[in-house]
From TrEMBL:
This is SET domain-containing protein SmydA-8, isoform B. One of its GO terms (molecular function) is protein methyltransferase activity. Residues 81-285 form the SET domain. It comes from the Eukaryota. Pfam families: SET (PF00856).
Length: 485
């Protein structure tokens, strides 16, 4: 029985090391507990002390659909199979029953397509619906979630109807309102010959539920890129933090021959030791994790529709990293930081109590934007790698500790760009690296150590980012040692 269990886990999940596998099998059912607060609503907390790198959750996907590529209209206009989520690649095979794009007879028979297929067939729905890119596939996920009200009342009552949707905030944003209207019209189109069982409010609310709670899974194949929006019942209860204590990853079925379903699971792992009673937190999106608090809060509100007040956002020093700090122009000794970091209109004040200089947030933003624009402009100069690295390094040296704190997020962005330029230029290629490149290796080593030092403190849950930098660092040290000897 144990052997069969091991085989099922290894087939369904991605490659998991033996230690993690043991933790999965031995983890206690009471590792997580659900709590409630006025600020967070329902959330998960640790029911006991949880060691670092413990697999806290391994959960099957409950509902899913292909994800829309909202940034690329050309890519977004591709058809994706409603079951396995793979792109059509020019072959537009139709479901024999409803006429929508389904890539194979195996996918046609899958349970997840059954309910919508019946609706499309009964109402003689013609593909495509009135609105395509960028909401075509989200329409399908909204419909699948709404249909649980009819076909799976437990999921609707105990899960979907209890999720946060931030309708008040979304209702003030033109992008959200336009998207919701298009999705509503698509779903009403599906019921054009019958009565739509869902109100416009229910449809709008479900758009918000998915916007706030869905996870994006991405799987790269040799010639295609498979993106899926997923809903997980337990994982949806993890609260967001900009410096979380857990990391998450969506893992796929290892058997590429089984293409009739994505067979996805979400794996949540402790990124640091967690004490009993601590809230369990994850990144909702790592896209803005490297930004300072002001920029991060503004951008997070745009995509997630709430003002983050996590431990990092409430701490003006950002856990002693000072990655938003700007040098005071009066005393020229200490740094300016926001008086109230979660208030985007807050003035910034010098940390030196003797100085006490105060600057408006507008002045701070203008200064940062000026530097960011200059850095962006370097990219547009079409320099070769050596020239661009040199110019970026000069900008960093000019501002580090003089205009910006040495850990400022703009300087981190420059360091990361330098690392990527050097790696793309082949600095880690053993055959290309010679004694003449020793100085470039020194730059790479310095920047990797600099970025890792901050990440270990602030972003332990960004395991992919940390792992990549550590790999570059080890490889560079190995090559450096070979050159020196």
């Amino acid at each position: 029985m144990l052997k069969a269990m091991l085989q099922r886990i290894l087939v369904k999940a991605k490659t998991i090391d033996c230690n993690n596998l043991k933790k999965i099998l031995n983890r206690r059912d009471d590792m997580l507990k659900t709590e409630w607060s006025n600020d967070y609503g329902r959330y998960l907390a640790a029911a006991s002390d949880i060691p670092d790198k413990t697999v806290i959750l391994l959960e099957n996907v409950l509902l899913y659909a292909p994800a829309d590529d909202v940034k690329d209209r050309i890519a977004g206009n591709k058809l994706f199979c409603l079951v396995c989520c793979r792109p059509s690649e020019g072959v537009h095979r139709q479901c024999a029953s409803c006429g929508w794009y389904i890539c194979s007879t195996a996918c046609e028979k899958m349970e997840c397509h059954k309910n919508e297929c019946e609706i499309f067939a009964q109402n003689k729905v013609q593909f495509p619906p009135p609105h395509g890119w960028p909401i075509l596939n989200k329409t399908i996920l909204v419909l699948r979630c709404l249909l649980t009200k009819i076909y799976d009342p437990r999921v609707w009552t105990e899960f979907l109807s209890k999720l946060e949707h931030h309708s008040d905030s979304r209702g003030t944003k033109s992008v959200c309102k336009k998207s919701d209207v298009m999705i509503t019209e698509n779903i009403q189109y599906f019921y054009s010959t019958s009565t739509c069982p869902f109100t416009e409010k229910e449809i709008r609310t479900m758009c918000g539920v998915i916007n706030v709670n869905a996870f994006l899974a991405e799987k790269r194949h040799e010639t295609t890129n498979e993106k899926t929006k997923c809903m997980f019942e337990k994982a949806s209860l993890f609260a967001h933090s900009c410096s979380p204590n857990c990391s998450w990853n969506i893992v796929f079925n290892k058997d590429e021959s089984q293409i009739d379903s994505p067979s996805m699971k979400i794996e949540v792992i402790a990124a640091a030791p967690i004490k009993k009673g601590d809230m369990l937190t994850i990144f909702y999106s790592t896209r803005y994790a490297m930004y300072g608090t002001l920029k991060r809060i503004v951008l997070m509100e745009e995509i997630a529709h709430f003002l983050c007040k996590c431990v990092r956002c409430r701490d003006k020093t950002e856990l002693e990293t000072f990655m938003s700090a700007v040098k005071c122009v009066d005393c020229k000794k200490d740094y300016l930081l926001p008086v109230q970091p979660t208030d985007i209109h807050s003035n910034w004040k010098c940390l030196n109590s003797v100085c006490g200089n105060t600057e408006s947030v507008r002045k701070i933003v203008c200064k940062i934007c000026e530097i960011e624009d200059y850095v962006e402009g370097i990219r547009d100069l079409n320099l070769n790698i050596d020239e661009e690295v040199k110019m970026l390094s000069t900008v960093a040296k000019k501002h580090s500790g003089i205009v910006l704190h040495k850990n400022h997020y703009v300087l981190q962005e420059i360091a990361l760009k330098v690392v990527q330029l050097l790696v793309d230029g082949g600095i880690l290629n053993d055959k290309q690296t010679t004694f003449a490149n020793s100085s470039k290796l020194d730059i790479l080593l310095q920047q990797c150590k600099y970025l890792l030092n901050i990440a270990y403190t602030l972003l332990p849950a960004m395991t992919g980012y940390i792992s990549t930098l550590e790999t570059y660092l080890r490889h560079a040290e190995k090559i450096k040692g070979t050159i020196c000897h």
